[in-house]
Amino acid sequence: MSYKSLMWFLIIVLVVIGAWKSVTILNEDQQMIVTRFGQLTRPPVTEAGLYLTLPFLSKSSVYYKNLIEWHSPVSEMPTEDDKFIAIESFAYWKISDPKLFYERVATIPDAEKRLTDLLDGSLRDEIARHTLAELVRSSGRHMDVSEISDILKVPEKKSFFQSKGHQPEIMAAIYRNASTALDSMQLGIQLVDFDLKSVNFIRIIE
Amino acid sequence: MAGKKVQFSNHEFEVATIYYWLIILIALALALLVTAIMSFYTIAPGEKGVVVRLGKVSQVNGPGVHWKLPWEIDRLHRIKVDYLYSAEFGFREAKIDSGAAPADEFYPPEARLLTGDLKMIDLQWVVQYRIQDPVAYLFNVENPENTIRAAGLAAMRTAIGDYSFHEAFQTERRTIAEQAKQLMQRKFDSYKLGVAVQHVQLKEARPAVKVEPVEMKAPIVNPPVGAPVDSTKTDSMQKAW
To answer: CB within 8 A of B70, min separation 6: which ones?
Structure first.
């Protein structure tokens, strides 16, 4: 009797676990791919809802499909006019192709590491090619510089105030360079936005 | 009448069979009632309720009484769509008991900005926003509050970069705020964040304080004595100069 009831108990446990494992609830901010022995069994699922898969045989990998924040530590770099500045940047990215992402990146921390390498490099490339004024300013707008600010005694030539800013172009260039690199690497990652949180002198004035 | 024996914390009761069934029935009815009550929910004025059924958004409801499936089949997210949220930048709200300093304290990692003539300014500002699209707010971006902070900092940094220290400090405060508002909104739209920026208000500003080693004895937050900095209001500052 006890042997038989043990059998039944095991069967029931297996059925419950199987049923549990075969159900995947996909939230609105998630997507998944289903693989069986390493092969994709269906196109990537991007619609939210309840999905059934074969228990034990199929493996479902769930990824986010919303925007994911990437942020850099404060990094120091020189501008074209030899000013050392500390820059803190952030980016938004998403997994645009879960299949490629699954095959080539697989985890979010890994993706973030690749983004860090790429974005930090692109940022340094562009910053080194421009003066600080070009980075800080966005247009060639004529500024009203009153004497009050001379109290701070920042040694700067007056002509500098007429220099044109290139911030939008610089940001666009960084975005373009990083995006092209990402596309050519085919990681299934799409860069949505890249911007600078803060730009500051390393030592406070002088 | 034949009874059933019921054990209840070391006491044995003999309960008539009819009562036995009655108790079970009442318990069932109670459980059902509780479930039914739990299935109803009220959305307060100014709120929206987003109901997610097994992962998928099934309905978005305005104020009133609504019904959903119990036991986590339907999940409810309440979002205050009319509430005016405010995000504070460049300062941390002063504690009431801090005594001598009633003004909000500058928070340099956020407050310190470079103006167009490459001078450093410490600035406090507030961004007021509404959640316009609750579904977008819930699901489109990983952490909406972080996004609002990041975009807020980037927008103000960009905006102030096109104005001189003098303009940022005195004459063009309104324009800078307006520009930062537009830059923020543009970012939110491109992220599909579902947030509408209502207002950006610049608050206190001061030239960035240079902390010298000599003054390290004093609290760092206080500007050096004699320096043309601080004062709590902009107008008193103008007089000082």
So the answer is: B35, B38, B39
Per the confidence metrics, is the pTM higher than 0.80?
no
Cα separation, A205 vs A202, whole angstroms = 8
Write down the domain spans for chain A: 3-64, 68-202
Q: Quick check: B108 contacting A, CB < 8 Å?
A: no
Which residues numbered 75-134 in A keep a CB inside 8 Å of some CB on B? 90, 92, 132-133
Give me the long-range contacts of A77-84 (CB less than 8 A, separation at least 24).
A77/A123, A77/A124, A77/A127, A77/A128, A78/A127, A78/A128, A79/A127, A79/A128, A79/A130, A79/A131, A79/A132, A79/A135, A80/A128, A80/A129, A80/A130, A80/A131, A80/A134, A81/A131, A81/A132, A81/A133, A83/A132, A83/A201, A84/A201, A84/A202
Please name the residue that has the structure tokens 């103006």.
Answer: B115
What ipTM score was computed for the predicted complex, to two decimals?
0.78
CB-CB contact of A179 with A191 (8 Å): yes
Contact A141 B118 (CB under 8 A): no
B59-110 tens-digit pLDDT: 888 888 888 888 778 888 888 988 899 888 888 776 666 555 556 777 877 8
Cβ–Cβ gap A145/B165 under 8 Å: yes
Query: What's the CATH superfamily of A68-202?
Result: Band 7 domain (3.30.479.30)
- Say if CB A165 and CB B116 are below 8 A apart: yes
Q: Do the chains contact at A146 and B164, CB–CB below 8 Å?
A: yes
Does the distance separating the beta carbons of B158 and A148 come in below 8 Å? no
Cβ contacts of B142 on chain A, cutoff 8 Å: 64, 66-69
